[in-house]
Amino acid sequence: MKSFLADSWNQSDYGSVLYFASHGSEGSITLSDRESIDLRSLGQEPCLWGQCVGCYVHFSACNVFENEAAVHDFIASTGAAAVSGYRTDVGWAESKKPAVPLDLMLFNQLWETGLERFDDDGTIEKLEAVEHDLQRRFGDCQFKMVLAAGE
């Protein structure tokens, strides 16, 4: 993951959405059967430290947003414009708490509303509308979006 982030993602000229799909727990994501990384540490990795300015980061992982302080630390370290994720256990395609359909709708709405870049006027209102719509449609997923303090 670190190699991809260092070599590929932050050198991209297009797009500003970073998507982590993994297992998770309160304030952390799972990298393997034996390794997890908390959002504070992830945000301080050289491949992400200050590398997400104007970007949207989505953690498709259970319970990551149960530690919202860690989310705010991640934003502060990386410069991300907004971060989203789940406050509960979610499933990939189950009839209750379906993460994949929500993730797909999230990406579609970001694209359809012109949120490829997160540096224009109206960004806050657009992101709030996306969050509200997804919470309405998928309330049991406990989807949450946090905007950077300056947004």
Largest sheet: 4 strands, mixed
Average pLDDT level: 87
Query: What is the total tally of β strands?
Result: 7
- Relative strand content: 15-25%
**Structural class by sheet pairing and helices:** alpha/beta
Order of helices and strands: HEEEEHEHEHHE
Count the DSSP helices: 5
Q: Largest beta sheet: what is the strand line-up? A: 1-5-6-7
Element layout with pairings:
Blueprint: H1 2-7, E1 17-21, E2 24-25, E3 28-30, E4 36-38, H2 39-43, E5 56-60, H3 68-78, E6 82-86, H4 99-112, H5 123-137, E7 143-147
Parallel strand pairs: 1-5, 5-6
Antiparallel strand pairs: 2-3, 3-4, 6-7
Task: Give structural notes.
- The protein is built from five helices and seven strands.
- The chain is an alpha/beta fold and 151 residues long.
- It has helices spanning 2-7, 39-43, 68-78, 99-112, 123-137, and strands spanning 17-21, 24-25, 28-30, 36-38, 56-60, 82-86, 143-147.
- Helices cover 34% and strands 19% of the residues.
- It has a four-stranded mixed β-sheet, with helices on both faces. It has a three-stranded antiparallel β-sheet with strand order 2-3-4.
- The relative contact order is 0.16.
